[in-house]
């Protein structure tokens, strides 16, 4: 695994066919969250190979996330996309709805456009 310089990007450098590819381009605050959840990401691998992406509030389509929160996308070869969300402490949420409920319970006011 290589860590990028100022952009906060990380990619898996595996050259073997069939190896999982991980692409990450996130802010430094989100890199801190990533370091907390790293062991969970690699432990919970799916059997089919695929591509994995980490997004934060600076990524297109994920501007709704609060700073420090991460969204993990797993694109399987057969077309299925799995999404998981992580808070700054590393807790896993399986849906966007769960994230919004957690924010509401912690007193965050969410306003839709």
Major sheet strand order: 1-2-3-4-5-6-7
Distance between the termini: 38 Å
Describe the sheet with the most strands: 7 strands, mixed
Quick one: overall form?
globular
Please, could you describe this protein's structure?
- This protein has 113 residues and is of the alpha+beta class.
- It has one domain (2-105).
- The protein has helices at residues 28-43, 96-105; strands at residues 2-3, 9-11, 21-25, 50-55, 70-76, 81-86, 92-93.
- It has a seven-stranded mixed sheet.
- Keywords: DNA-binding, Nucleus, Transcription, Transcription regulation.
- This is MBD domain-containing protein.
- It is found in: Nucleus.
- One of its GO terms (cellular component) is nucleus.
Topology:
Blueprint: E1 2-3, E2 9-11, E3 21-25, H1 28-43, E4 50-55, E5 70-76, E6 81-86, E7 92-93, H2 96-105
Parallel strand pairs: 3-4
Antiparallel strand pairs: 1-2, 2-3, 4-5, 5-6, 6-7
